Amino acid sequence: MRTYWWTIAVLACVSLGACTTREKQSPATAITEDRPAQAIAYYTAAINANGQDAEAYYHRGTAYSHKGDYNRAIEDYNKALEINPQFPDAYFNRGVAYRHKGEYDRAIEDCNKALEINPEDAAAYLNRGGAYYFQEQWPQARSDWEKAVELDPNGEAGQNAHNNLGVLTEQGH
């Protein structure tokens, strides 16, 4: 089971962002208590013990994202994907980091890769819709948010997509 980090309804971030990152359920108590620096130290120790631990790179990347250090997060997601190229959450979170950096094409590419692996991922549609929104590609944003609602009508991704669709409609797009 996954929990969704930073799931922000689009204009709650001042602009239509759908800012979600995912953190898998794990002993990542330091992150859940908003202590990313401590979490980074733990994940670094895990990486030092086993440099082929894709999960440790993924989780450390998530901790860097929580600190707002998207460049280091992307480096760790890259390493996780080098070890395990079929890791949809690493593609998803790297896409979120790219979106935060304003690299919308790369965010869309990563969401596409996550969706190739897991086509039922409502949060990936939510995030990709946010990237399309920032590129002013309104029909694509709407389509992705509608798909997120279809896949997760009562969950967090679906609820955020509902909010995003409301904003998009209110703006006349």
Note down, in words, how this protein is organized.
With 173 residues, the chain is mainly alpha-helical. The protein has helices spanning 29-32, 36-49, 54-67, 70-83, 88-100, 104-117, 122-134, 138-151, 156-170; strands spanning 2-5, 21-24. It has nine helices and two strands. It has a two-stranded antiparallel ribbon.
Task: Tell me the layout of helices and strands.
Layout: E1 2-5, E2 21-24, H1 29-32, H2 36-49, H3 54-67, H4 70-83, H5 88-100, H6 104-117, H7 122-134, H8 138-151, H9 156-170
Helix pairs in contact: 2-3, 3-4, 3-5, 4-5, 5-6, 5-7, 6-7, 7-8, 8-9
A few lines on this structure:
With 173 residues, the chain is mainly α. Helices cover 66% and strands 5% of the residues.
Structural class: mainly alpha
Radius of gyration: 15 Å
Amount of helix: 55-70%
Strand composition percent: under 5%
Mean pLDDT score, rounded?
85
SSE run = EEHHHHHHHHH
Shape: elongated
Q: Largest beta sheet, briefly?
A: 2 strands, antiparallel
- Lateral strand order in the biggest sheet: 1-2
